[in-house]
Amino acid sequence: MSSIDTRPAGVTGDRARPRTAARPGRPGLLARARGGLPTLVFLAPMIIVFGVFSWLPIGRAVVMSFQRTNLVSDPVWVGLANFQQVFADPQLLTAVQNTAYFAVLALLFGYPIPLVAAILMSEVRKMRGLFSALAYLPVVVPPVVAVLLWKLFYDAGEDGVFNTILGWVGIGPVAWLQDADIVMPSLVLEATWAAAGGTVIIYLAALTGVDPSLYEAAEIDGAGVWHKLWHITLPQLRGILLITFILQIIGTAQVFLEPFLFTDGGPANKTLTLLLLIYRYAFTNSLGGDYGAAAALSLLLALVLTAFSVLYFRLTRSWSSS
Amino acid sequence: MKTSRAAAAVAAAALTAVGLGACSDDEPDDGRTHITVTIDAGLEQAAIDAFQARIDQFEDANPDIAVETQEYTWTAGTFTAQLAGGTLPDVFTVPFTDGRGLIERGQIADIGDLTAALPYREDYNPNIAAAGEDPEGDMWAIPIAAYGQGLHYNRTLFEAAGLDPDAPPTTWAEIQSAAETISDETGEAGYAVMTNDNTGGWILTTVVNALGGRTEADGAATIDTPQMREALAQLQAMRWDDNSMGDNFLYDWATINQEFASGRIGMYVSGGGNYGNLFTQNALNPDDYGLTVLPLADDPNAGVLGGGTLAVVSPNAETDEQAAAVKWIDFYYMEKLTVQEAAVADAEVKAETDQPVGAPELPVFDKATYDEVQTWIAEYVNVPVEQMAPYTGQVFDQPLLNEPVTATQEVYGVLDTVVQSILTEEGADIDALLETAQAEAQAAIDAAA
Predict the structure, then answer these.
(1) Which residues, if any, are the signal sequence (chain B) (predicted)?
(2) Which of A73, A179, A267 sits opposite B106 (nearest CB)?
(3) pLDDT value at position B375?
(4) CA–CA separation, B222 and B264 (whole Å)
(5) Is A77 helix (H, G, I), strand (E, B) or coil?
(6) Across all residues in chain B, what is the average pLDDT?
(7) What is the pLDDT of residue A209?
(8) What three-state secondary structure class fits B39?
(9) What is the C-alpha separation between A296 and B379, in angstroms, rounded?
(10) pLDDT for residue B10
(11) What is the three-state SS of A140-209?
């Protein structure tokens, strides 16, 4: 925060702290850092770690997107050739479509389910902790283990776990991961199971923040469960809902684990997603890693997601703050 | 207060400096050349001890070299990352497929001068040596093992289906017929193919080669050929008409080995030396195992696709480290192929640690040298050689073909999609698939060139 604050007192909500008098000229870094040198020194480890392991790789990726490099030989500047290569790749459209399909399915199933589960749990009087723990349990399972477990469930044979259950009611067997029409919903089902618990906990926490007097007032006015949900619960949660929505979009646009471990993009590229395509550019290419193309597509994805996020928050600003 | 805060800040800065300092690379300055060499991941303690004993022998013979080990297993995804990250050992192994590409791009050390001095350099089978040579004929990568593709089959499933395990199929039509019988009689997959991680293209290329076709010729993709159509049409018939290929159509090398070893697959095509993995990693019952050659079409171009392993040196190795690395390759990988004492010692250790001895390979030199080595280690052979006789009795007479050299993995990847489409989409249009694959494969080859 700047030491020069020209706003009226109270805008920052920091009434107790006396304002520093304005000084002529631009203050130095040390002066601007509240606490001076010790603050900077304490910050140094974090800045170095973030710099080395986050910001530097990001900057390096941007540079690499304009180079042809296998990280062993000397890189060659190629201008926009990597981007042209990515746009000319027929698999890009497939990957975009598949990623969008995954995102839509995940939104349809994965977005409302945790909300409904959280609301139902919040209504439960007894054993709420137990239900919360059960809902959160899949999050505790390491993701790779979860996928391997679900691979057993999805065994296409008659003795697969899900097919055995379906067999009891005379359905199947279903080729969960082999059928081009079913494979993506199968991945979304597992992804929803794996991730819903975390979102449920967030919603449950948010629900505790809703003022009970609102519900009492609504009940006095004769509101039913549906009206309370629609007119109190959802409006009170909208800030959280907006955040989880954008997080879900960003998360699903970067889906990698499920298609990588379940199907490796198959059958016939039906689960090839953008992240998997980036992975293939970088690591399964006998050119010794086409890191330039991988970086170019990563950069494009980051730009699209950034633009989407900015647009989303601009469009929903009034709604979230009202 | 101010003093203590400043002291804490200094301490934090010192800790940061110490942390960063720990990242630096320290090599002991004992006057010796230090190299890191590859040891297979996941070995039993006895095998690790045996490996260490070999290191001790090497260091005794070469007191100016110190050898350290690093666990390493080649996989397509991890290898590329390790190569780029510079985290590979000084000596590591790669499949034949990758040799020429790594050489062209200078991603491995040029040890041509060092390999030229090896006493057996000129004895290599030229077909095998080519996998590790640059266009001038300098050997940058040393072939240490070779194999030809084979048809692995489950003798127990054959018997359960009323088939004679001692008379495995000798034509592709017989393979199709046997697969249908196995599937009908046992409920297991009669025949299965790999489809993932570029292995689908690898196996499809194998079958096309056996039928007399090629997927690449003179720098051009030759995907749409009569042999390719024949291979795909048969696959389509086995999947959709005969229903003899089971339920899983997303296998890679590891998972198909796993399924075969657990008795759920009647037949599949893979490297002839697969027994080691099936037995040590997947608990195959040796009694189940059978191996035969791939049926070759009556076509002068028909041949069996070969492959193998190259020992190479890291591009980061200094000159003295390169020399030490080649000495190690010569000592550890090659002596057992040329020197009786070393061959016997290696077989003895493997037998004692319950690792397979005598699994079929192709000779990297000539057949006579290979046969001689087999006589040296005969008393330690612990694999069911009789059950591999249909393979070992014929494979040396089959023409050996090398893998395509340009954009190999990319073209295999393109063909993965074709195989997966055939197996997962009923009535898949072979014409359309091949048209697309031809264009994509050519684009990959053009990009690589």
Answers:
(1) 1-22
(2) A73
(3) 94
(4) 34
(5) strand
(6) 90
(7) 86
(8) strand
(9) 58
(10) 55
(11) HCCHHHHHHHHHHHCCCCCCCHHHHHHHHCCCCCCCCCCCCCCHHHHHHHHHHHHHHHHHHHHHHHHHHC
Average pLDDT score over residue span A45-61: 93
Cβ-defined contact of A286 to B101 (cutoff 8 Å): yes
Q: Collect all residues from A whose CB is shorter than 8 A from any CB in B.
A: 37-38, 41-42, 44-45, 48, 70-73, 85, 90, 155-157, 173, 175, 177-180, 263-264, 266-269, 279-280, 282-289, 291
Does residue B262 belong to the interface with chain A, where contact is any CB pair within 8 Å?
A: no
User: Residue ranges of the alpha helices (H) in B164-318?
Assistant: 172-186, 199-210, 226-236, 253-261, 275-280
Strand extents, DSSP E, B337-401? 400-401
- Where is pLDDT greater, at A322 or B392? B392
CA A274-A162-A107 angle, 5° bins? 35
Q: How confident is the model at residue B349 (pLDDT cuts 50, 70, 90)?
A: confident
ipTM of the complex: 0.79
Q: Which residues of B touch A156 (CB under 8 A)?
A: 247-248
**What pLDDT is recorded for position B14?**
57
| Mean pLDDT calculated for residue range B21-37 | 72
Domains and CATH numbers, chain B: 33-146+307-380 (3.40.190.10), 156-306+407-448 (3.40.190.10)
- What chain A holds in terms of domains, given with CATH numbers, is 29-64 (no CATH), 81-321 (1.10.3720.10)
Q: What is the Cα–Cα distance from B399 to B303, expressed in whole angstroms?
A: 5
Tell me if chain A has a CB within 8 Å of the CB of B410. Answer: yes
Q: Which amino acid is at B11?
A: A
Of the candidates B6, B20, B107, the beta carbon closest to that of A72 is on B107
User: Within a 10 A sphere around the Cβ of A54, how many other Cβ atoms?
Assistant: 10
User: Measured between alpha carbons, how far is A230 from A214 in angstroms, rounded to an integer?
Assistant: 13
Residue among B146, B135, B72 nearest B103 (CA): B135
User: Searching chain B, which residue's CA lies closest to the CA of residue A173?
Assistant: B247
pLDDT bracket for residue B23 (50, 70, 90): very low
